[in-house]
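Lab meeting, action items carried over

1. Structure of the two-component assembly. Owner: GW. Status: complete.
Input record:
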Amino acid sequence: MLHLRSLSLLATLCLTLPVSAASAAQREPASGGVRAARAADSPVGVTDAGAMVRLPAGSYRPLYGRVGDPPTRVGAFRLDRDPVTRGDFLAFVRQHPSWRRSAVRPLFADRAAYLSNWAGDLDVGDAADARRPVTSVSWFAARAYCRAQGKRLPTVAEWEYVAAADASSRDAAREPLFVQHLVTLYSGRSRHTPEVATGAINAYGVRGLHDLVWEWVDDFNSVLVSDDSRAVGGRDHSLFCASGAIGAADPSNYPAFLRYAFRAGLTGATTVSALGFRCAA
Amino acid sequence: MTTSQLPFTIHVPLRRIGLGTVLAIGAILASATLAGCGAPVASAAERGESAVPTRALPEIVGEERAVLTVAPNVPPPITRTHATRVLVELETIEKTMTLADGVEYGFWTFGGNVPGNFIRVREGDLVEFTMTNHEHSVVPHNIDLHAVTGPGGGASATLTLPGGESVFTFRALNPGLYVYHCAVSPVPMHIANGMYGLILVEPKEGMTKVDREFYVMQSEFYAMPGGPGKPHTLDMEKGAAEQPTHVVFNGSVGSMTGDKAPQVRAGESVRLFVGNGGPNLSSSFHVIGEVFDNVYGEGGIDITQRNVQTTMIPAGGSTIVEFRAEVPGSLVLVDHAIFRAFNKGALGMITVTGDKNAEVFAQKKGITLSAH
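Predicted assembly:
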């Protein structure tokens, strides 16, 4: 076991490319704040696509579970610092014509809505548009993109683990101020997706996780929130317990409820104008 | 002597009553009967009568599109005498509107207004409900209509992502005035942001005639500034503490005052369909300057009390009140938990125009405060 673990650690170290911006963000002191971290960044766009942040192994408390349950372990992984931009995705569809708007198979994306905010198959808009997160992409498309980069979509556990961090603390999921901040943020989300460089950087150095778009996760349908979120699952399985509050370890974690409810409505071919993604490895 | 003449009636579904309870009630009934008339008569329970009716489903004839209205307006009474297929289309829209002077709030709505559109169908109708969620919405929505008999009141069939659409059908089995609301997690946030409205299921016999009908819905808001250039949003702490910043009728402070006050003529009969969206507070609903001639308690179809000053409306509940506007002036709708009216906005008006009637009301001496 030890041997395997050190091997995987070695692999992680080797795979973690020395990306300056991400490292800089990570080196910022925890209390350094967003501004300091931003100052260390280079402009983001097509040019430094693929910048990744290394996440240490750790644990987090899933929304659904009993008080007293042990936290869920999350292994070390890497996560794109930014959501995938339209510019990034344009490069992908240039190389993979089957994922262009006019060519995508209906099984893999709702064709009427897929990339509907682009001006054409290979026209994402102006330079600023190219720096916005790509949205209106299906899970199939997001997966294909990540695979083409030698990456994958993050799991719910990985995503939520990183999402628990605010600007200065790695676990702020139960901090009332952070919870309120996210409720306000989600409620006031702009229909015009901001450029990724405007995203807030969290304590890990991951940017724009909450303030830009909703994001796909690989196993979006593994944790079911009932479509009627007050119903109580008849069987005793904490993950599938579908209630709004009963079965949830922390009924006041409204941001998490909002995210889980959003995922509950998804299918693999769904596209939403405020739903993008980033890749993990 | 029948059981309805007894000093009590039993409303508990019989299948939930244990044998012992049945025997005990039987004994009580028997003794009451014996004490009353001397001749033993079979009780309702002994005759096998069910406490709840079995509803026959009427034949569906034709199809029509429901007329939806924005508060304080109510769709016209239903005149048809048969059940039909009613198409209802409602879109969930998230939009910034004015909650009070200087307070722009990021509302979540059914139909673009708070409260949501008033829906009017007839007992026995087959309702085909289409819910769409505007593509610019941030979050998924659904609808739970309290008038629906079925899983989640429709919620389990209507989880709808931004840009999506859901359709389900239901039979309007029970007549009455019902609240509908969004039930997506976290439910309190959806309701606190404005997602509720009323659906009236008219009894198949129809409703008695009145001159004017209005739609009024009380609710409260927990508003906090959303930052520069952003609308106010839900204050989680105040919501959980049940300490609203605003308590309002029809979605905003002043929605039913001044120029926006509905007008009626003196002598007209008025029916108010009143709902309470909550999310937390019950309403002590009162109209200053009137007495409710009739109250249909909790939004049922029977007049439960006459000559009522203030009637209670629970969160997620409703009531129907009727009165005749006798004399000109302003009738003032309030939640008589009066700080809510005075400090937080729970105040609306109905302007009564027409000739004075000194036989009913006349000021004899003193300072005249209201000018009409």
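2. GW to write a short summary for the group page. Key points so far: The longest helix of chain B spans residues 19-36. Helices of chain B lie at 19-36, 187-192, 236-241, 339-344.
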